[in-house]
Design a protein that fits this description.
31% of the residues lie in helices and 16% in strands. The chain has ten helices and twelve strands. It has an eight-stranded mixed β-sheet with strand order 1-2-10-7-12-5-4-3. Helix 1 links the parallel strand 1 and strand 2. The N and C termini lie far apart (43 Å).
């Protein structure tokens, strides 16, 4: 059932002269209530022209690059590379076939700015830009992690930030370009069984995600606390005339585990146009859909134990008193959690390995 439209706060973090404690508090409260936050895109943290260039790169990759080139870069267990249509299944318990999308994952660049993976020759000249955009997203995610740490009064306040510094170790961070073909190009028989689902319901595996979308392209829905599905507008009220749509930030599993479930890792999905109640005024899902996601992960050896914060501790005790538990029974590291989730999503990749 879909009800209304998601009422997610829009927060402007671009003004360094504003009260940072207030901004941090706003971010935390939005993360607790919704698990999603709109970050007003003024072009300061990530220039609008760079966002436009990233979408142009996605079009070149998915529309001008041959299948043979992409197949040579097929995704591996390090979560880097190309995943074909139906290769990934985000909701394996409920999906009959895999997601109706293609994706290309770029891992973190080296200290010299080089990508540490095969990329198609068609986009090889874009390697410096990919590294540049990766780094812009990294810096914005560090800023958001810093504000969340401050808003939760974590001790030390830079706990989240230092956990994500590249110099402290390798991580599972991924910059992902996504392409959803036009619904008219998909046979009705192919969709049979999965209803209106274009990409299965899931929570994100990392700390937080930065999502870039194009105006007018519908499809994303989040699940409310009441279990209803509500669409998430690309441009919420008040942002229609901004230089670019706001960056949609969502809390991932790891920030939820680190905070005893206080920060909400919200389940979300992508649906086909015409799904009951999924229409947002001014948006359509009848054409091709592109999006760009930056999945921020901490250093892989970081343990997923509650952070030193009085608010986190108190919430954990309150939940335990209600008989509610959060997170893994066994204490995992960030990499262990990621690998567990990837094995569930990339069934074919791991099944083929077993055959070998």
């Amino acid at each position: 059932m879909t009800v209304g439209v998601a009422k997610i706060p829009v927060i402007d973090i671009s003004d360094d002269n504003q009260d940072q404690a207030r901004v941090a508090k706003e971010l935390v409260e939005a993360a607790i209530e919704h698990g999603f936050i709109y970050i007003k895109n003024t072009g300061k943290d990530i220039p609008v022209e760079d966002v436009d260039a990233a979408f142009n790169l996605a079009r070149k990759l998915f529309k001008e690059t041959s299948v043979e080139e992409k197949q040579a870069c097929t995704i591996q267990k390090n979560n880097r590379g190309w995943s074909a249509m139906h290769y990934e299944t985000l909701d394996p318990k409920n999906q009959r076939v895999g997601d109706f999308k293609e994706a290309f994952n770029f891992g973190e660049p080296s200290q010299q700015g080089h990508l540490q993976q095969p990329i198609p020759p068609t986009i090889r000249s874009a390697e410096p830009f990919i590294s540049h955009f990766h780094t812009l997203c990294h810096h914005l995610s560090l800023r958001l992690n810093t504000l969340l740490g401050q808003g939760l009064s974590v001790s030390p306040p830079d706990f989240f930030t230092s956990a994500h510094l590249r110099e402290n170790g390798a991580s599972g961070t991924i910059l992902r370009l996504l392409y959803y073909p036009a619904p008219s190009s998909i046979a009705a028989e192919e969709r049979k069984g999965d209803g209106d689902v274009r990409a299965g319901a899931h929570s994100d595996y990392g700390s937080l995600t930065l999502l870039f979308r194009l105006k007018g392209q519908a499809g994303l829905e989040i699940q409310t606390r009441q279990g209803n599905w509500v669409p998430v507008p690309v441009c919420p009220p008040g942002t229609e005339t901004d230089p670019a749509p706001p960056i949609l930030v969502n809390i991932g599993d790891l920030l939820s585990y680190w905070t005893n479930g206080l920060l909400r890792s919200t389940v979300h999905r992508v649906v086909f146009p015409g799904a009951a109640g999924s229409t947002v005024e001014g948006e359509t899902g009848g054409e091709e859909r592109y999006s760009i996601a930056y999945f921020c992960h901490p250093v892989g050896t970081m343990k997923l134990e509650p952070v030193p914060s009085e608010r986190v501790r108190a919430f954990g005790e309150e939940q335990n008193g209600k008989g509610v538990t959060n997170g893994e029974r066994k204490m995992l590291t960030a990499d262990e959690h990621l690998n567990m989730r990837l094995q569930a999503s990339y069934l074919k990749l791991y099944e083929d390995e077993k055959k070998d």
